[in-house]
Amino acid sequence: MSAFTENSTLLAIETSCDETSAAVLVGCELRSNIVSSQRFHTQFGGVVPELASRAHVRYISSIVRDALSEAHVCMHDVHAIAVTQSPGLAGSLVIGTSFAKGLALRYNVPIIAVNHIEGHIYSACIEHTTLSFPFIVLVVSGGHTALFLVRSFEEYQLLGSTRDDAAGEAFDKIAKLLGLGYPGGAKIDRLAREGNPSAISFPRGMMHDDNFDWSFSGLKTAVRTYLQCHVSGGQIDDQQLRDICAASQEAIVDVLVHKTVRAAQHYAVSTLVVAGGVAANSRLRERLCDAAQDKGWSVFIPSIQYCTDNAAMIGYIGRQKLLAGVRSPLTFTIATQAIRSPYRSR
């Protein structure tokens, strides 16, 4: 088993939820990042764990093969493997980690287990080489909403997280109430552009609490109550739909931006990062960039392809760990829970 160096080739695998993804890094160059999304969950109104794990079984071999092919390497060229260990759906994680362990054993290469949230934390570094420590990162997705103070590749601190629904989950549940289907975040974003965010006053949960936590379950309830009281016959007219989308989106974005900015002020950090699937939301991007510009801060946001679940981000932080001498035993187990605070990555 050879040492992992700056020029080594790394295969990364991500299967924490409903995306099957593999990426190849040769040195610091990302050669490929293949993502297969399981669109069939739309008919069920959300991800069905058992079906997700079955789909991973069906596609993981071909996804890894495609990633290697696009990178113009073969498994004999790979010096190490990085794989998502936690958090996520248990069945999905088992498929990815088992496949990665099998490859590591077959080709006698080291393996590194990566926390999915760590991948999001450092995802902006893939493209933005000028991003430097320390920075505040808002990780916001369908399953997670958390704020971190990041000091290095080896140390970061969880400042706050959601007490109930994640922001992306709130978007999806509100979309379901509005009959927009799943996933609903992008649909709300699109409709909100033609709506009035001030038309309806929805609650901003925990906005002025003396912490960096969030709560979005009350907003979902407020939207349901509004529909019951103000929508006659269950029929929402087009403008009313756009206004509800705009107002509910604004309520979510208000709290996300307010607490992110307050955390940066509290810790005297002038660099902000937003990552995760909801980082694709146009209003969140606009509001955070405007807030940062007013204060002379820098904002880094990954491209859309690196906001959603992908193996490139797992490979990026996995490579940093391997270069620092970190390895995982083949006996490592999955974990479905999220990061706790304080946290050091090794």
Could you give the topology of this structure?
Blueprint: E1 9-14, E2 19-26, E3 29-37, H1 49-71, E4 80-86, H2 90-107, E5 111-115, H3 116-121, E6 135-140, E7 145-150, E8 155-161, H4 167-177, H5 185-192, H6 217-230, H7 238-266, E9 271-275, H8 282-295, E10 298-300, H9 304-307, H10 311-323, E11 343-344
Parallel strand pairs: 1-4, 4-5, 6-9, 9-10
Antiparallel strand pairs: 1-2, 2-3, 6-7, 7-8, 8-11
Question: Ranges with pLDDT <50 over ≥5 residues?
Answer: 341-346
CATH C-level class of the largest domain: Alpha Beta
Going by CATH, the architecture of the largest domain would be 2-Layer Sandwich
* CATH fold annotation of the largest domain: Nucleotidyltransferase, domain 5
Element order: H for helix, E for strand:
EEEHEHEHEEEHHHHEHEHHE
Shape: globular
CATH H-level superfamily of the largest domain: ATPase, nucleotide binding domain
Number of helices: 10
Which percent range fits the helix content?
Answer: 40-55%
Approximately what portion of the residues adopt beta-strand conformation?
A: 15-25%
Distance between the termini: 22 Å
Give the biggest beta sheet.
Answer: 6 strands, mixed
Structural category is alpha/beta
- Widest β-sheet, arrangement of strands: 10-9-6-7-8-11
| Total DSSP E strands | 11
Mean model confidence by pLDDT = 92
Count of all domains? 2
Rg computed from alpha carbons, rounded to a whole number of angstroms: 20 Å
